[in-house]
Amino acid sequence: MTDIEKQIQDLRERLQYIEDIFGNRENTNITLLRSKLQDFIHNLPSLGPGQIKRQLTSLSDLFSFLENKLEKELTPMDRVRIVRHPQRVCLKDILENVYDNYTEIGGQGEYSIDPSMIIARAYITRNVGKKTYKQPVMVIGQEKGHGEEFRNGGSVKPWGNAKALEYMKVAERENIPIHTYIFTPGSYPIEDYPGAAQQIARNIYAMAGIRVPVIAVLSEGGSGGAEAIGLTDTRIMLSHGYYSVISPEGAAAIEGRSSSTRKASAQLVESCARQLRITARDNLEMGYVDRILQEPPLGARPDHFDFFRKLRREVILATDEIVLSIRGVKLFRAIALRKLNNPNIYVRWSISSKSKERLIWRRYQKYRGLCSWAYQDRSTNFQKCKSAVLETGWSVYSFLRYEFFGRHQRAITHLAEDVQGEVHALMDRVTHRFSSLFKKLPWVRKEREDACQLTTLSTWEAGMSWNEHCRYVSPQANQDKTLTCPNSEKHNCLDLWAPDLFGDFAGVCSHCGHHFPMEYEWYLFNVFDSRSIREFNAPIEASNPLEFDGLTHKLDKAKKQTGHKSACMTFEAKIKGIQVAVAMLLARFRGGSVGAAEGEKFIRAAEQARRKHMPFLAYVHGTAGIRIQEGTNGLLQMPRCTLAVRRYLESGGLYLVVYDTNSYAGPVASFLGCSPYQFAIRSANIGFAGPGVIRETTGMDIPPNYHKSFQALSRGHIQGIWDRREIRNNLHHALMTMGGEFLYYR
To answer: Could you say which of 426, 454, 482 is where a domain stops?
Structure first.
């Protein structure tokens, strides 16, 4: 191919790229480019060498001029098409052009446990004065691969995220920073172990406490797939990228209630893309990214080498800033970086133990302050002052009781236990001949039976009187009709009369044990001690921060129907005398979807449990996931709530999660799925995505009972299945047998 043919081919590719971005929209600038290029090719045989060269130069200049002009006409959906285009810059391009040397680990090309997730040990060489420094870094990111089919379009499977987590821990052990590159439309929705939701939850939980600087560069940030490697100290977003809780097409399908065989209209997709505020500028204004890296007009492509130089400078600068922000000796270098914008200084990227503690606290504070504008707090000034005083009082009391005096008390107690153990060992040696006679004494036998019963979680058996504490009867029990159990064909279940089913049987089939859905009030009145519930954070109200069409009306309707201001109810209550903090997601309020208000209430509940040294229970009556109409405000509740959970657990708390009915998507893939103790009511459904989403994403129909609780148990996603009639007893046993000395009653 001659040089002229190469230039013509390049112009053709540029024109095709522009047409792909703008879709079927008529545009005079694109029409002009098309006609000029066609005229040149048509007249090419009659032109001399000099004329060809001049016209090619003129055409190239025209393309550059009109590309700059078209840049100003881009819509949010155009930017989505840019990041999805096969010519879009990808992680392999970045590794080749930003880093001086790298070694791909955890697989190469298609020979990898998940080719859509790339891990590389890379180096950045810096020349400062006469010295040369080689600074290592762990690079982790999704790879779309310019159309390579085995990359799965950057949609990472659970084992790909597990691979990323493994090498995050390697970077932490080696004390080197992590650079993550987010190029994903979303995670691959599969429940096979380790499971999409559970693995994302593990990743987010681990990143909340990773003790090295983490920098993220976002190009395409789709939902939980982005959050799997997105909880970072600094977020740099490419100017043509997008970051959203859901794709515009997915939002349009939900808003338009499109069937799986009929796509939403292009106008609705464009509208959703605009209303979700997914662009880099939108996310910067909302405070969800730290800076924007400007790309060439119409997006960065592999031959834009100036872009790679700018990206290299930005990731170095961001890493330097994070390290200096947590280091003691930093004054003049910090000024050089921030004020003078001078990167030609050396900052050692390995950090000390004290700096690591400051890094974790800085990360928590950063995310804790996000989304404060995205919900409404109807508390009066008096209520806010009262709450602040109580929080301060409990913090002081907690420090004195559990830290100052408690530390010495525990030391004395442990010493006494050791001495007592030695005495018992000595006495056993002296009296072992009489021990068999001693154990036959009736009061000793009774104590042993009680101890055995305490360590065994109860299960319901026929004949047990579960309803001794029943104080609430479902309104469904007032219906004079019969219901057929879904398992009737398999187990030959008899039809059930509603008053019996929802009254005496607590919504449980008397033959096969299938659990029919029950109202959340049933649990409020029948699980917790009578008159022990004390709600807090009630004035926090769900709102419509993005002014999404129709959401305000839907929220008002939900508030009127339920009497609650959000889908999360937080309260303190007692279970057989043990005080617990509870966050309950209510399925009746917009499907239990989580937005900024729900996330804030959950975080405050976790903080209250930590201050008061109480167990923390998350009861999920049902959740459909993140509230998509809140956009990134909803998505960020995944890392925000997970950070609060990690802080609570690291202080020594006991975090229990109980799933009922249907629990899907973001909450399960973050602050619920990271609990070490997760249980489900029988017949509950738990997963990352529903059957429709899985079918649309993978093209496959899921097997029967794919999301049932017993499947989740067999995959290791939950730790047990409970009968509704025994949930009170099981929770009490869990409170007595799980958790450590942090809890107030220990």
So the answer is: 454
Q: For residues 553 and 526, what is the distance between their CA atoms, to the nearest angstrom?
A: 33
pLDDT at position 455: 43
The mean per-residue pLDDT over the stretch 147-157 comes to 83
| Domain end among 312, 337, 368 | 368
- Taking the alpha carbons at both ends of the chain, their separation in whole angstroms is 80
Q: Are residue 95 and residue 20 in the same domain, yes or no?
A: no
| C-alpha closest to that of 547 among 276, 251, 254, 268 | 276
pTM of the model: 0.88
- 43 and 154 housed in the same domain: no
Question: Could you tell me if 166 and 24 lie in one domain?
Answer: no
In a domain, 342, yes or no: yes
The count of domains in the chain is 4
Percent of the chain predicted with pLDDT > 90 = 47
Same domain, 427 and 547: no
> Higher confidence at residue 418 or residue 342?
418
CA dihedral 620, 625, 631, 636 (to 10 degrees): 60
Q: Answer whether residue 466 is part of any domain.
A: no
Residues 488, 509: Cα–Cα separation, whole Å: 10
Flag the least confident range among 23-37, 210-224, 360-374. Answer: 23-37
Domain that holds residue 326: 83-368
- Both structure tokens of 119: 């891990």
The answer to whether residues 440 and 584 belong to one domain is: no
Clarify whether residues 99 and 211 are in a common domain.
Answer: yes
Q: What is the pLDDT of residues 580-622, one digit of tens each?
A: 999 999 999 999 999 999 999 999 999 999 999 999 999 999 9
CA–CA distances in Å: residue 654 to residues 207, 453, 729: 20, 21, 17
250-288 per-position pLDDT tens digit: 888 887 764 455 677 888 888 999 999 999 999 999 999
* The pLDDT of residue 575: 94
CATH number at residue 560: 3.90.226.10
Strand-pairing partners, residue 137, are 122
CA distances from 213 to 182, 317, 444, 624, 646 (A): 17, 12, 57, 33, 18
Residue 504 lies in a domain: no
Q: Do residue 615 and residue 672 come from a single domain? A: yes
pLDDT at 458: 46
Residue 725 CA to its chain's centroid (Å): 32
Strand, coil or helix: 664: strand
Q: Sheet harboring 677-681: ordered strands across?
A: 534-536, 568-575, 578-585, 616-620, 655-659, 677-681, 720-722
List the single range of 139-143, 173-177, 189-193 with lowest mean pLDDT: 189-193
Same domain? For 566 and 596 the reply is: yes
CB atoms near residue 583 (< 10 Å): 27
Is 292 within a domain? Answer: yes
Residues contacting residue 104 through CB under 8 Å, at least 6 positions apart? 95, 118, 119, 120
